[in-house]
Amino acid sequence: MSGLIEGLPDAVALRCLARVPFYLYPKLELVSRSWRAAILGSELFKARQEVGSAEELLCVCANDPENLWQMYDPLRDLWITLPVLPSKVRHLAYFGVVSTGGKLYVLGGGSDDVDPLTGDQDGSFATDEVWSYDPIMRRWAQRASMVLPRAMFACCVLKGKIIVAGGFTSCRKSISQAEMYDPEKDVWIPIPDLHRTHNSACSGLVIGGKVHVLHKGLSTVQVLDHIGSGWTVEDYGWLQGPMAVVQGALYVMSHGLIVKQEKEVSKVVISASEFRRRIGFAMTGLRDEIYVIGGVIGPDRFNWDIKPMSDVDILTVGGNRPTWSQAASMTKCRGTIFGCTQLRI
Q: Where is the F-box domain (predicted)?
């Protein structure tokens, strides 16, 4: 990499490139070989952090098309399509998805491609495979496999490490085991097991620097403060429903309402009655907003049709008066959302 911008040291020129919006990088690569080398180099990601030009994007995978991810740029209301995930598992679903260090990680899961005669899920109910996506290189890479194959499990990032816990290894066997992944070393190590397991899917979220694991249908929450201390069991009385964390606060969609949940105290924020017939959507937080993405409409007693959706609705909760708005619809993905997470580049 030499002579990026005439008259400027390469270190200064790289910081100039770091200020260019991410979506323009494919065009910058066409300028010259040295620009391409700079764009695809590891130093650019560090430079973007240093100059304060890092961008917050959303990554989404839906039922249709198979194993395809899209990224959403909220500043430009723009969807970017990623290369197809090269997993051998068809219609990968029930996986964990997180991001750390500027990369997207897709972990475990199993096939949603069910044979209607046998019930066989494409030969794979739960896999141990792990994939990372580098948005700068625009390439998927297979990483070290998890210790246990699992699906429908909790998956979070704590202090740069990926934590997975619970889930199922087969359609009948739920597990309490947990493990931690170090992205820099590409290794998995076991960590203390959950205190309890349950015959239902579980999910995870991070609030106040602690991992919280929730099982569907249970009011208790299992909390991990740091690895050495193990898990504790708390009963916060949280409402059931889709959840999103925005600026450290937990929001729940329950009974047609968006509710801000603080331990045992619930505060109604705004109505969400228009989502009562919408199922299978993702709900996630980004900056001071809640995003409701995709899903399907119906059926009901008047209409048996099922309508896959690509719509994106946004609730801004950072101001004095919460308001709903709409963003650009997904350009490729539609229907039930299998995975959704933030990605900082």
A: 8-48
* 317 and 290 Cβ atoms separated by less than 8 Å: yes
C-alpha closest to that of 291 among 255, 345, 242, 344 = 242
Please say if the pLDDT value at position 203 is more than 70. yes
Residues 171 and 197 in one domain: yes
* Among the listed residues 114, 209, 125, the one whose alpha carbon sits nearest the alpha carbon of residue 163: 209
Q: What is the extent of the structural domain holding 313? A: 55-344
Q: What is d(CA 129, CA 87) in angstroms, rounded to the nearest whole number?
A: 8
Say yes or no: 75 and 41 in one domain. no
Q: What is the pLDDT of residues 270-281, one digit of tens each?
A: 999 999 889 999
Contacts of 42 (CB under 8 A, 6+ apart): none
Q: How far apart are CA 75 and CA 125, in angstroms?
A: 38
DSSP-assigned beta bridge partners for residue 252: 243, 259
Tokens of 274: 């228009």
Which residues have CB under 8 Å from 27's CB, separation 6+? none
* Among 219, 105, 228, CA closest to 160: 105
How many residues appear in the chain?
345
The pTM of the full predicted model, rounded to 2 decimals, is 0.93
Structurally, the chain folds into a number of domains equal to 2
Q: Which H or E element spans position 17?
A: helix 10-18
User: Exposure pattern of 107-136 as b/e (b: 16+ CB <10 Å)?
Assistant: bbbbbbbeeeeeeebbebbbbebbbbbbbb
Q: State pLDDT tens for residues 164-178.
A: 999 999 777 899 999
Q: Give the per-residue pLDDT at 6.
A: 85
